Amino acid sequence: MTPTPTASPATVNHRAILAIAVPIMLSNVSTPLLGVVDTAVVGQIPDPAYIGAVAVGSLIFTFLFWAFGFLRMGTTGLTAQAVGAENADEMVAALGRALLVAGAAGTVLIALQWPIREAAFSLLQASDGVERLGRGYFDIRIWAAPATLANYALLGWFIGLGRTHIALVLQLVLNLTNIALDLWFVLGLGWDVRGVAAGTVLAEWLAAAVGLAIALRHARTLGVTWSLARLLSAVQLKRTVVVNSDIMVRSLALIFVFVWFMSQGAAQGDVRLAANAVLMQFIATSAYFLDGLAFAAEALVGRAVGAVRRSALVEAAAMTSIWAGGIATLITALLWVFGPSLIDLLSVDAAVREAARIYLPWAVGAPLLGVWAFQLDGIFIGATRTADMRNAMLLSTVVFLLAWWLLLPWENHGLWAALYVNYIARTVTLLWHYPALLNSIDRPA
User: What is the dihedral of CA 130, 131, 137, 139, to 10 degrees?
Assistant: First the structure.
């Protein structure tokens, strides 16, 4: 075993937090920008069906790929704990196992694309025009599946290592390439939603190739070689399966909430669907910034658990949450001031602009309410307390559906209010499990 040259797991301070969080924030700037560009380029077509098609098509792949979000989250937690335990062999093996799963799962998704597509569009209550365009988007985007899942694993590994500057490089390669191709294919070649999908496919495969090359080089610097026997270790495989299956169930429940939100918006007509899609870009942008602090919590909490240091865990949880709360407050203020102008930037359709302004306050307040759920997710991922995450999210989903049903008379306002209720439920249920997480650390050093 070759010890990894990382800082002590007990090192939790503002500098350590920012060293992890800032590169993630910088890389994530390009991720919501990609969503903005996707929406903006098709928004130049004076028909809300094009924005709706991209929103619905993206939602389907969000559901598919976020179901495999454990490839990012589980890999981060397991890798960070190996860092804390100074076990370089297991650090590299954690990535190997994740890449094996990514390749197999991506291939299965491609093979099952027809039933997946038919099931997805039968569940979404979109208009004929939105569905027709959305199907064209799906038929192209599905071919990115293996690369997308491999990128999840690679991103999680580099975050777990604390090498977020490499994660920054990979995300920039992915998102800036995607943006450039979107602009070329849609505005230059006139491929409408098909151009958005094709740009995503090519960018995902390029980023996966670059990430794998960097990972192989980094493994060699640790003095570790790939070992099939270690990858297939029964004990580690069992642990990986348990962690990942819990996260998968949790992710499916979370994505169900957003699928339900968008489908109920679609049932209210193309204008409200498009307006909600524009406002969800604001929420996605906020979440990507706040993820920097949540990812810092994952890495630092994971190291603390690997080193069995309860005080380091408490410090990591508290300090990253303070930073996250401050940034959420700033984002909320910026959305309040610039929200109307951003709506006009994302859509030229007058009806969509008017509807988005009506529901803008809901999007403005979401970062300040959701940040606490995001931080708790990061803490529990780092500690690999995934059963608690799973149970909390399942209960929160039930609470969301009950709130939606009770708020039906308020139509789209009620739908947004139900989303707020889900944020609150996620926060409360994870806080309920937090004392047990602390008690799981044997030595309160």
Answer: -170
